[in-house]
Write a sequence for this structure.
C-alpha cells in the first residue's frame, strides 16, 4: 500500500466498526435468533443436555436472562426432546470466544452458565474481530482488480451507503449470520484468487473449511461453491482448461469434498441423534416458513417499499450496472459473478418470510456485499474515465446515495422507518422527516406482536361481515336433545372429537394485507372442563400444512356447567404466503364425555 489513502481508510473503518458497535452494545447479545445459534455450545459443553430432555435448564436460563419471549429457537419432538431450529455453523464462529468467556467466568467467579457477562462480552468482541477481518480481506480482494483509490472508495460506499451499518455495527447484537458470512465471502473470493494463481494445497484446504462453515451456518449458502467452481471460466476454451486443472489437482478436489462432508457431518449426526434421521427439516414445524421456489418474491425483495433492496439501498443499482463494465473488462469472472448473483437472489427471494422481520433493507443480502463490491469497483473504474461533467454527476449521485442511507439509518434507529411495517404511503409521509405523527402511522402495516398476544382494540376502524354461521339445523349432523337456538345443536364425545369446520381461502376474506377474525360459539358443558376439555382451533393452511395455529383451551375460559356459555376469540390473520392459503376454524374435543356446541360463527373485520 504505497498510497496512504487506503491505509487511512482502513484505519478509520476499523475505528468506526469498534466505536459504533460499542455505542450500540446490546442489552443481551445472546438473545432472539442469536440465542438459537449459540445454544449448541452451553448445552453441549456446560449442561451436557444437547437434546434438552430436561427443559428446566432452558426455562431457568430464559427466566434469568430474558433471551426470548417464546422458545421459538427449537421444536419439541414427540419423544419429548428438542431439536434446534437453526443449523450449528455459527456456533463454530462463536466457539473460541465461548471458551474465552468461560475461562474468564471461572477466573473472576462469574456464573459459569454460558450466559453471564464474560460470555456476552467475549462473543461481542469476537463479532467485532470477525467484522474487521472481513473489511481487511475485502480490501485485498479489491486491490487485485483496482487501484488503491478505487478500493478505498468502494470500501467507504459498502460501509456507509448500505445497510452494512445497521446489521453489522448497530443491531443484530453483532452476532447475526450476516456479520460472519460477510467475512467468509470475502475470504472465499480471496482464496479463489490465490488458488487459481498458485494451486497450493493450503489454499484449497482453507477454502474448503470456509465454504463448509458458511454452508453449515446457512444451508442456502451452498451457492458459495459456485465462486471457486466457476472462477476463470469465460468461454468454451477456458471451461475445458478449468476441467483439466481440476483433473490435474483431483486429489485436492477430493480433499475439498471430504472436508465439506466432515463439516456437514456434525449437523447430520446431531439430527440423527435427536430425530433418528440424518436429514431433518427443522423449519417443518411451521408451514408458513420455508422456501417457495416456484413462487419467489423477487419483485418484493428488490422494489417493495416494505423492504425493497434497491429502494432502501439504491447504491446497489450502480453495483448492478457494474456487470456491464465487468463484461467488457474481465470476462474471466463475469459469468461467475453473474450466475452467483442470479441464483443467490432467487434463493433469497424464495424464502417465504422474504421481509426478514425487524431489519433495514434486505438483511439477507448483506453477506454478499464483497461480491457486489467488485461490481461497484468496475462501475467506479468506468466512471473515473468519463468526461468531467458526467463524472461529477455520477459521483454526486453516489454521494446522495450515501447521505440518504445515513439519514435513513438514523430514521431506522429512531423508529421512524419501521423494521417490519413499512408501506409506500408511510415511506413518503416520513421521507426526510425526523419524526412521525400518529396520522402518518395510520398507513403502516398492522402491528403484530412477537409474544403471540393479540388484542383487537380498534374495532371502530373496521367493517364487519359474517363469513359463516353453523347453526346445526341439519338433522343428519345435529342433536335434538338441547339447543341454544333453533331445534338442534352439535354433540361432541369420544367418538366425534372434531366439530364441522368453517373454511375459506384468504382471497375470499379480503384483498388487503390483514383482517381480524372473530370466532364465537355457544358451548354447553356437562362435565368439569378440566376432566373433559376442548379447544377452539383457528389456523391457516399452506400446502396442506398448518401455520399461525392458535388453540384456545377451555381450561382458560370461565364456563358454567349445564348452561349455554358464549365464547369469543379474536385472531389476526398471518402474513399469508399465498392468497389461496386457507382459513380453518373448528372445535376439538380433547375429553371423552359429551358436551354440546351451537351457533359456531366466524366474523371477518376488514379495514375501512
Amino acid at each position: 500500500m504505497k498510497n496512504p489513502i487506503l491505509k487511512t481508510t482502513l484505519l478509520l473503518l476499523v475505528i468506526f466498526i469498534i466505536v459504533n458497535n460499542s455505542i450500540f452494545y446490546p442489552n443481551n447479545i445472546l438473545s432472539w435468533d442469536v440465542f438459537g445459534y449459540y445454544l449448541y455450545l452451553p448445552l453441549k459443553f456446560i449442561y451436557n443436555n444437547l437434546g434438552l430432555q430436561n427443559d428446566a435448564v432452558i426455562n431457568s436460563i430464559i427466566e434469568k436472562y430474558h433471551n426470548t419471549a417464546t422458545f421459538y429457537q427449537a421444536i419439541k419432538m414427540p419423544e419429548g426432546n428438542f431439536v434446534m431450529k437453526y443449523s450449528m455453523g455459527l456456533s463454530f464462529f462463536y466457539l473460541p470466544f465461548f471458551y474465552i468467556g468461560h475461562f474468564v467466568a471461572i477466573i473472576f467467579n462469574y456464573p459459569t452458565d454460558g450466559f453471564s457477562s464474560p460470555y456476552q462480552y467475549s462473543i461481542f468482541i469476537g463479532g467485532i474481530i470477525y467484522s474487521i477481518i472481513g473489511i481487511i480481506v475485502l480490501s485485498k480482494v479489491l486491490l487485485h482488480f483496482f487501484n488503491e483509490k478505487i478500493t478505498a472508495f468502494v470500501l467507504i460506499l459498502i460501509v456507509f451507503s448500505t445497510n452494512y451499518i445497521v446489521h453489522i455495527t448497530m443491531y443484530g447484537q453483532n452476532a447475526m449470520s450476516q456479520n460472519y458470512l460477510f467475512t467468509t465471502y470475502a475470504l472465499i473470493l480471496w482464496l479463489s484468487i490465490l488458488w487459481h494463481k498458485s494451486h497450493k494445497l493450503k489454499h484449497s484446504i482453507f477454502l474448503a473449511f470456509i465454504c463448509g462453515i458458511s454452508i453449515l451456518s446457512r444451508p442456502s449458502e451452498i451457492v458459495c461453491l459456485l465462486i471457486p467452481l466457476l472462477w476463470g471460466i469465460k468461454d468454451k476454451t477456458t471451461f475445458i482448461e478449468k476441467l483439466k486443472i481440476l483433473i490435474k489437482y483431483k486429489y485436492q478436489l477430493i480433499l475439498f469434498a471430504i472436508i465439506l462432508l466432515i463439516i456437514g457431518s456434525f449437523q447430520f449426526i446431531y439430527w440423527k441423534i435427536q430425530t433418528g434421521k440424518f436429514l431433518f427439516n427443522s423449519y417443518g414445524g411451521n408451514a408458513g416458513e420455508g422456501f417457495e421456489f416456484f413462487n419467489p418474491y423477487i419483485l418484493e425483495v428488490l422494489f417493495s417499499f416494505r423492504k425493497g433492496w434497491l429502494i432502501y439501498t439504491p447504491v446497489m443499482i450502480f453495483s448492478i450496472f457494474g456487470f456491464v463494465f465487468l463484461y467488457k473488462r474481465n470476462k474471466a469472472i463475469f459469468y461467475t459473478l453473474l450466475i452467483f448473483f442470479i441464483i443467490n437472489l432467487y434463493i433469497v427471494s424464495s424464502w417465504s418470510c422474504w421481509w426478514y422481520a425487524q431489519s433495514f433493507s434486505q438483511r439477507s443480502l448483506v453477506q454478499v456485499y464483497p461480491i457486489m463490491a467488485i461490481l461497484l469497483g468496475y462501475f467506479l473504474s468506468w466512471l473515473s474515465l468519463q468526461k468531467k461533467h458526467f463524472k461529477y454527476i455520477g459521483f454526486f449521485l453516489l454521494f446522495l446515495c450515501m447521505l440518504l442511507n445515513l439519514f435513513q439509518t438514523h430514521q431506522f434507529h429512531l423508529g421512524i422507518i419501521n423494521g417490519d411495517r413499512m408501506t409506500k404511503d408511510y415511506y413518503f409521509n416520513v421521507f426526510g422527516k425526523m419524526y412521525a405523527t400518529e396520522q402518518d402511522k395510520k398507513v403502516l402495516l398492522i402491528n403484530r406482536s412477537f409474544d403471540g398476544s393479540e388484542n383487537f382494540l380498534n374495532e371502530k376502524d373496521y367493517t364487519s361481515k359474517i363469513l359463516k354461521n353453523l347453526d346445526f339445523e341439519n338433522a343428519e349432523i345435529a342433536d335434538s336433545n338441547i339447543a341454544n337456538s333453533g331445534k338442534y345443536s352439535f354433540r361432541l364425545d369420544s367418538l366425534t372429537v372434531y366439530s364441522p369446520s368453517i373454511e375459506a381461502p384468504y382471497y375470499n376474506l379480503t384483498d388487503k394485507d390483514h383482517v381480524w377474525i372473530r370466532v364465537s360459539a355457544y358451548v354447553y358443558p356437562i362435565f368439569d372442563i378440566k376432566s373433559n376439555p376442548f379447544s377452539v382451533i383457528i389456523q391457516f393452511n399452506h400446502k396442506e400444512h398448518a401455520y399461525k395455529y392458535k388453540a384456545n383451551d377451555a381450561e382458560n375460559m370461565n364456563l358454567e356447567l349445564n348452561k349455554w356459555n358464549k365464547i369469543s376469540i379474536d385472531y389476526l390473520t398471518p402474513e399469508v404466503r399465498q392468497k389461496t392459503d386457507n382459513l380453518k376454524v373448528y372445535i376439538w374435543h380433547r375429553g371423552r364425555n359429551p358436551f354440546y356446541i351451537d351457533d359456531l360463527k366466524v366474523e371477518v373485520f376488514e379495514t375501512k
